[in-house]
Sequence to fold (228 residues):
Amino acid sequence: MALDLEEIDRSMSFHSSEATIISCGTVTIDAAHQKVLLIWNKKLKIYQLPKGRKNIGEDMLSAAMRETYEETGVRATALRLKIATRATPPSDHSAAMDNNTTTKTNDVYQSQKTNTNGNGNAASPTATATATCNCEITEGRLSTEFLGCCHYPDPQSSIPAMKVVFFFAGAADSTVPAGPGAQEQWEKLDTVWAAASEAAAMLRFKAEAEIVKKALEDARRSGYPMVG
Fold:
């Protein structure tokens, strides 16, 4: 199929680095207790997902975990899920490679309920590849790729800027007290562990609700018995 270069040129747009804000956040799940981590913004009176700007030289996944801790006091760890992604898979990938990972992940979940690693985070299941797959969308492979992103003009920037927020899946134990550096009473954010079945409906922004729904769907596909 021939490429329409003129159409590509018309649809392509340029945003300079100083006019682009990269923010990173998480949908952090406690599978054992069927909870999702939210923040209550006391200034705006709305529920949101934890997120914030990445630092120079920081990778996005690390930024997401750091911002989650800074806004909530919760030490989340990256949660490997079967996330459909356009990221290029390794050469050993097979579309059928994860046939047995649901069982493996369920084993991890059962272990999490009875024997956590200190944070209550389940260890990540693994899988063995059998054949190569060349697909536009890679599915069925456990990874820590981003769940999705939302973008919008940043209303708080004095200079016009487009904000792009990348969300990653995280895992944490909702029964562990907040760590040092968590939000204090006088600060504008409160940490909230919401029931997984209610979390999406609580969020003010539809895009964030869609991210939560996708995270729970990906978790279920990966063997975690999440509701919602």
Summary: The chain is about 25% helix and 25% strand. The CA atoms of residues 150 and 165 lie 5 Å apart.
